[in-house]
Amino acid sequence: MFDGGFSATSLAVFTALAPAGAVAFACLAAFLLVNRSQPRDWRDVLAHLLFIPLAIAWAGFIASATHLGTPANALHAINGLGRSPLSNEVVSAVAFLFFAGMAWMYSYREKPKASVMNGLLAISIVCVIVMLFHTSFAYSIATVPTWDTWLTPANLCATALLSGPALATTVLQAARVRAGKWPYALLLIAVAALAAGTVLLVCHMNFLGTVGNNVTLASALVPNYGWLIAAHAALAICGLAFQLHGLRLATSRTRGLVFSVIGCAVVIIAALLARFPFYDAYLSVGF
Q1: What angle do CA 249, 233, 216 make, to 5 degrees?
Q2: CATH number, position 20
Q3: How many structural domains comprise the chain?
């Protein structure tokens, strides 16, 4: 599974962590925007905890930079803005990190203006959507038929909508705010994404059996794809079940949060498992 080298591993980590953190941030930002009339004290607590999904996204972004060879090469990644999918992906990710970071830091101001905070949160949500779009289509390369398929963006978005809401649920629990049905709605989104994502992964596995070059079939590059899909689904189901149990554990908020954190970690591991086969299936039209 790791034949692609550390570069493939770092990109798998990037496409698992960065979208998860970004979507979680968007979910929490939407929660704050919808609940603008609620008491400022718990809104501030949740705003401070935006650091958690932001840190997850940063971890993914840092991991992706390791495949560039040297940090100096990162400067060249933005030269093709508008014409290069990689440049578009990098710039959109940087834009999200900038505005999301600004929103988080602004929450620590002694008397933050609601209009400024809401504006930063809204811009961050837009940046998340743009980032997901460009990250999803960054691998539409005609000379790599195993990547140049509609399944590529669909799979990445499904993975993000699985792990992102799961992470947002845990942060809401940690903030101990009056979230109402939001955590359950987020878990429902994650369950739907898991179901759709599993089907998409199976479709991609079958698709690889129809693609090849004059050396090998793409399916031969990922012989254990079926087992990885099964492990991905099983881990995600267990993780989401842990989180649901944590939400319903009314006897102890601390124990409930522990269950939620463990469940979220398992879901993110499941998301990571879903990303490795994509990079292992790299196959160009030539040799």
Answers
A1: 160
A2: 1.20.1630.10
A3: 1
Find the domain containing 54 and state its range.
4-281
Please indicate, yes or no, if residue 64 is contained in any of the structural domains: yes
Q: What does the pLDDT look like over 77-107, one tens digit per residue?
A: 666 667 677 778 888 988 999 999 999 999 8
Tokens of 17: 């962590």
Q: What is the pLDDT of residues 166-209, one digit of tens each?
A: 999 999 999 888 778 999 999 999 999 999 999 999 999 999 98
Question: Does 9 reside within a domain?
Answer: yes
Q: Do residues 112 and 106 make contact, with C-beta atoms less than 8 angstroms apart?
A: yes
Half-sphere exposure of 1 (CA within 13 A, CB side): 14
Whole-model pTM: value is 0.90
Estimate to the nearest angstrom the gap between the alpha carbon of 205 and the chain centroid. Answer: 21
Token pair for residue 252?
């102890």
With a cut of 70, say whether residue 1 has pLDDT above it: no
In-domain check, residue 93: yes
Helix pair 5-34, 85-106: axis angle to 10 deg: 40
- 208, with CB counted inside 10 A (0-12, 13-18, 19+), is buried
